[in-house]
Amino acid sequence: MTTQIQARDLSKRFERHTRRAGMVGAMRGLFDRASETVTAVDAVSFDVARGEIVGYIGPNGAGKSTTIKMLTGVLTPSSGEATVAGFTPWSERRKLAQQIGVVFGQRTQLWWDLPLIESLELLQHVYRVPEQRFRENFTMAAELLELGSFLNTPVRQLSLGQRMRGDLAAALLHDPQVLYLDEPTIGLDLVAKTNIREFLAHLNREAGVTILLTTHDLADIERLCKRIIVIDHGHIVHDGDLARLRDKIATERTMTVDFDDPPTLDDQLETRGMRLLDQTGQRVRVAFERSRLTAPDVLTALTEYGSIRDMSIEEPSIESIIQHIYKA
Amino acid sequence: MDKVADFRNDLAVALRIALLRIRGQMQYRASFWMQIVGNFFVNIAEVLVTWSLFQHFDNLGGWSLEEVILLHGLAMVTFSLGDTLSNGVQSVPQMIREGTFDRNLVRPMSVYLQSVVSEVSARHFGHLTQGVLLLGIGLATAPIEWSVGRIAYLPVIILSGTAFFTALFTVEAIFAFWTVNGVEAVNAFTYGGSDLGQYPLHIFRRGLRLIFLWLVPIGFMTYYPALYLLDRADPLGLPRAASFVAPLAALLFCLVIRFGWRAALRRYTSTGS
Ligand SMILES: Nc1ncnc2c1ncn2[C@@H]1O[C@H](COP(=O)(O)OP(=O)(O)OP(=O)(O)O)[C@@H](O)[C@H]1O
Ligand SMILES: [Mg+2]
After folding, report:
1. pTM of whole model > 0.90?
2. Do B108 and A90 touch (CB under 8 A)?
3. Hey, what domains does chain A have and what are their CATH numbers?
4. How close B174 gets to chain A, by Cα (Å)?
5. What's the mean pLDDT in A204-224?
6. What is the DSSP string of A3-68?
7. Residue A64: CB within 6 Å of ligand 1?
């Protein structure tokens, strides 16, 4: 297993000039500008192996984009080291650029006044992609991302979803080893999101492209990422399997039970370690600690209130897990 | 050697991008030509000023109308070519504000050339056309004793001046990396300097002359080469070689600006803004 992305104690501090209030404050600002240091990324370390898809998540302002900018060579870190595809991003930016694809979801990489197809053809020359490779990659992207209907439309006239698909195609024409995606599904409808997820999964599976992805849409994570790295206030607070995270954090499960007749519940439930979430007619939902009770335990306890027709168990949603991490 | 090959490829790609974008804009024929024609007339004021001057005086510091027109032509052609080439670079501050500059840093191509073609516009062709007309008239009517040397030097003057003005416009972008407010001051040098370059340098006060020769060497780009074309002696007393300094001064100036541009990029990659 070869390492494609390696970050070691990567930190980025920004100087932020603060404006003082009032006229006097403005006058003072002319002479000594008040500034504070913001540590956007704080000693972040991780390895990403070739062919992995890693979800890089965290609340607004956590430091996700800043990390990606350092790993693409856009920003020089304040301290720490990194290697991507064998290069140090900020000192070997041009060589690295040939090996990576970047999609900043909020901003297009395309030339806004040119038809999509011309933008893609220009990128062939920028990256010096041999004609044969270009044709293959272009055909694949055009087919999977369904670009056909708007290839000849100027980029400025594309809808957000079309533009994003165009940007994705643009990012992989040169067979990048590593793909960085900063919020690639932001603002898209469900169809476009699904299309993009399937495309990324395909790319990863068929071409072995390593993907580092930030998103606020946890459905992206569930579909694509086995591993997630959670960052908050510049610190990594979790790095590992999504499943393991669930075990570690989400200790409460929910059971939904349908009785034959509406049951009359009492506070015995609480003393047995269950929590009543709600009851509507025959349907009852209870939460329980997985460390204290098993599902059969709960079921046995509930049969005392009447005969049971149906039941289901819900694992905690990723949303609730992530929320839990952010709060901690 | 690698670097040279990279640069040649970058140039070819930049040219391709520029041509495609100009072609794209030409599809909106009316607005394309309107821009150019508009730009032609917006810039005509300078010429009218000179023309009205000559209604009252029959020379300007000893130079005839034809000779001043030649100088106008040289200054305008080089200025507008530089303006056109640096169009994209001039929009770098705006790209940084909007966050679109980052993409220039994640592609395997010179950041400067990417900036150059990030905003392509034929707008300044109006000004350029005017410059070409004036230069043509000046060359045809001014008293020039044509020789091989003079014919050969003409393109050198144009190229040097174009490179010089492109670099001068880059100064503006460089300053914008440090301060939002200082840019006005730099404008005084670009536009003020180009105005000044259209008139015989010796009519200006000493302070201005020194600035626009030794700090921002516009005088070496237009006035001194014109002295050679017109076979005039320098009233300011510099040696005759001053007429041939243009390419060297342009090169030096470009190197200084290149240094500044790199510092600006370093600043950007460390502050992200
Ligand atoms: N160029 C900059 N100058 C100063 N501060 C910055 C700069 N870029 C980012 N920051 C600050 O660094 C912190 C991290 O920002 P970053 O953009 O990396 O967050 P993020 O995790 O991508 O957030 P989001 O989910 O909103 O995109 C924030 O506090 C932000 O204000
Ligand atoms: Mg972000």
Report:
1. no
2. no
3. 3-10+48-246 (3.40.50.300), 252-327 (3.30.70)
4. 18
5. 91
6. EEEEEEEEEEEEEEEPPPSHHHHHHHHHHS--EEEEEEEEEEEEEEETT-EEEEE-STTSSHHHHH
7. yes
